[in-house]
What does this fold into?
Amino acid sequence: FLTIGGGDYMTRAVQYDIVVKEGDTSLKEGDASLKEGDANLKEGDANLKEGDTSLKEGDTSLKEGYTSLKERDSSLKEGGTSLKEGDTSLKEGYTSLKERDEGGRH
It folds into this structure.
């Protein structure tokens, strides 16, 4: 009777020991998974920061490009004004020549 009881106890103790070892292995695997997850989170955070930096650089480039376009547009307007002024001067010069020409004929 004691041997059977003892046998049952020994069997349970061995089974319990196996369960404890399996649980310990699971905990170690879980810990490794957590470390990997933490590393992935850090990499993801670094990637987000790089992405944010890239977006800021892109935004700066867009602003610079927009400024360049505005400057070019302004230059084109100034050039257009200069052409109009030059055209007016040519017309005035042509009128003066015609008047002088006509004054010389009389």
